[in-house]
Amino acid sequence: MLPLAARPTAAVDLESDGFKLNDLGWQDIDIEDAIPGVMESSGRRQGGPYYRIEMRRGTHRHHPAMDPTPVWGYKGPSDSEGQFPGKTIEGRVNQPMKVEFVNELPESHLFDVDTGVHGTKLSDYSDRYPEWADQFAGPDEFPEVRAVTHAHGLHVESASDGLPEQWTSPDGIEGPQFVKDVYDYTSRQDPATLWYHDHALGLTRLNVYAGLAGFFLLRGPQEERLGLPSGDKEVPILFQDRAFEGEPGDGTPDRYQYPSNFQAEVSGDVSVVNGQAWPRFDVDPGQYRFRFLNGSNGRFFNIRLEAEDGGDPPTMYQIGTDLGFLRDVVPIGPAETTKSLLLGPAERADVIVDFSDFAGETLTVTNDADFPFRSPGASTGTGGAGLPELAQFHVRTGDPQDPAVDPTSLRLPGPERFEENATVQTRQMGLDTGSLNGLDTHFLDEEGGRPAPGEHWGDPILTRPQLGTTEIWELENRTGDAHPIHLHLVDFQVVGRGQDGTDAPDPTEQGNKDTVKVYAGETVRIITRFGNFTGRYVWHCHLLEHEDQEMMRPYEVVTGERE
């Protein structure tokens, strides 16, 4: 094994007195009512749909026994306030759309902002952007609240990517890399389960925890030809964790709990699924398509279905991952080779489940991934920080419904393989730990040297792939944590993993991805083609606390000679 750095000491399991499962109990919800609404367009521009979406405060009731919680969310044309989760944006392959995200948030944050985190104060920008910084008479004028929305997994031009320094403030201040108000989404890629969320430098963990996240489904003929479950049988499922403070049912707001000072990793002890705490979804005795998304700040979920009294649960059939369909259907269950579905933060899984043989029964969605998470082999299987149960499905009584498809015979339109013999460069990228301003910090090392110095967010760009070329990145994890690594702009494929990166990838990740789990002490090799746009993008850890404190680096796609 590679030598591991010491685990950061500042991993915090938040405690929610009065809000746990044995306090509140499961809440019954018709699955049809749990499906997020579809975002309405605000008209058309240049021949395509135009969406004007506001980021606003709102209130949200997570459980009938709870009082409403102040949240931040995305507001569509028909909404009275910010919605959590945000309504689902739906696009179509090769049909451009324009989206404008407008910052109408309060000028004070929902949580305390630790100004030791890079990107939260004027001095973090003034050296690199002196002319831009001159607009402020002093450091007190720098806005506390900043937001920018990233369409995660969408291939877009740099100016529309929602990069960390493309933020705006409620009073109209634009970040130093801000380019345009209205984003151009060209949608030139395969159908996929995407999502949109905040990405502001130094505030991402707080803004997403406040509620700024929603699904983005890209549709197209590839999936429609398969005849998959649709309508109210297609259900996006957003898994998150939260911690609360207050007294449920006392008539005062039950607020989110989050540390005042920066912590390297934070977990909540309340399961929140599609915005609902401890949900028990009532489903028909039929077949469903679930689009799973791990939208937590830093918690891994190792998902299983468990039947009553230890019986055999229905098999989960995974048909897709982050950016489209797998090459082959992967059955998941106790009788299968793949026993569970492990999702790191930001990862997605497209799954078919048939409840037709389970009328009148209740199935539990369980989780045994530790927090913090190191690797499957290092897990104690406790579920970490009190989240061994995430949700339930109660199957209504009635006659079994005919399935839409037979998942065992599906021929999936899996992705074209990126050929390793077309690779023009292999880059060694290190994942490291350290400290900055007295805070536990993780770094990305783009030089590949050891011992690794690690580069900071504001250091010069070192990685410049050439447009249209194929590269292999070797991600070497020298830390004691697993890290979900996300690359903007591109889709990539996992070539290998393990101590030397030569073990075969897991069957559940053999498709096009934008986020990959890199376990403690291992190397993951990915291959990608930089074939869409030139310009500046980023790659980073999607543990949001890590991302906010230096585990993120810019890269630039160029037409000239690569670096």
TrEMBL record:
Top-level taxonomy: Archaea, Methanobacteriati, Methanobacteriota, Stenosarchaea group, Halobacteria
Keywords for this protein: Capsid protein, Virion
Name this polypeptide is given: Spore coat protein A
Natural source organism: Halogeometricum rufum
Pfam families noted in UniProt: Cu-oxidase_2, Cu-oxidase_3
Residue ranges of domain Plastocyanin-like in the record: 149-222, 462-558
Superkingdom of source: Archaea
GO molecular function terms noted in the UniProt entry: copper ion binding; oxidoreductase activity
InterPro entries cross-referenced by the UniProt entry: Cu-oxidase-like_N, Cu-oxidase_C, Cu-oxidase_fam, Cupredoxin
